[in-house]
Amino acid sequence: SNNMATYTRTVHYTDYEKPRFALSKPLIYSLGGPVTVLDRLTATDSSGEDISDNIRIVSQNINISYEDTYMLTVQVSNSLGDTESVSLPLIINSDSARRQQIALTSYLVYLNAGDSFNAYNYISSVTDSSGNSCEVGSAAVEGTVDTSTPGVYHVAYSYQTYTVYLTVVVK
Description:
The structure is a single chain. The protein is mainly beta. 0% of the residues lie in helices and 42% in strands. It has strands at residues 20-23, 28-30, 41-44, 56-59, 68-77, 83-93, 102-104, 108-111, 123-127, 133-134, 140-142, 151-159, 162-170. The strands form four sheets. The protein has a four-stranded mixed sheet, with no helix packed on it. It has a four-stranded mixed sheet with strand order 8-13-12-11, with no helix packed on it. A hairpin with a 5-residue loop joins strand 9 (123-127) and strand 10 (133-134). The N and C termini lie far apart (52 Å).
């Protein structure tokens, strides 16, 4: 009979989210040394699928010969064609080989608009240059996160001469 028919419908996902990045360690590298971002940056789709192989470094204006904090833009796309990008602070310095003095529970977090944010809640530990534990409150925190306004925010945590960043994405 060779009869053919087509039917088109629009599907609306109620719990779908764009891909998300995760950062397992801070982006701090030695002056003149190799910069390997993809060993600590991952991405997942809303289904939990690891799409880290799809990560692309979009903007890369890093000069490993100069101490500075650079902004690195990364991008990932999922199988549906949704693309997410985020700018991350990357530090090049001569002291990166020394012991990490501030450890965070996460280096990249996602918040919904209207969520509360307390920068000190993300500090896991603070240690001095000898490795002795210090009060979490001894770390200086710079930067604000406006959870009422979607965007990407960066919070700097400093102790002695060590600085680490938390990137906060408000959706």
